[in-house]
Design goal:
Layout: H1 2-13, E1 42-50, E2 53-60, H2 66-75
Antiparallel strand pairs: 1-2
Length: 88
């Protein structure tokens, strides 16, 4: 369902308009079942037509630190090679 909403928003946008939509879903959880939904924050990298459906490539945004943060910042061009991400 959510993929269909994202797909329709992306097709309507045609690359010239940013569309943001918040979807709220209420799920009833019993002692016998667990939620089957995971919420992630991130960015849609691409949405391509694949046969009868679509393929969504998602880049999750995560808090990084240490060497992982340094490499990611260098790859993104935020800091020059050899520099380090400042600590909080």
């Amino acid at each position: 369902m959510a993929l269909a909403v994202v797909a329709s928003m992306a097709l309507a946008a045609c690359g010239t308009k940013t569309v943001t939509e918040t979807v709220t879903k209420t799920v009833t959880v019993t002692a016998q079942s667990a939620p089957r939904e995971i919420s992630l924050y991130g960015h849609i990298k691409s949405l391509t037509n694949k046969g009868a459906g679509f393929e969504l490539r998602f880049d999750p945004a995560e808090w990084l630190g240490g060497e992982t943060a340094n490499r990611a910042a260098i790859e993104d061009g935020v800091i020059p090679p050899g520099d380090v991400v400042p600590r909080e």
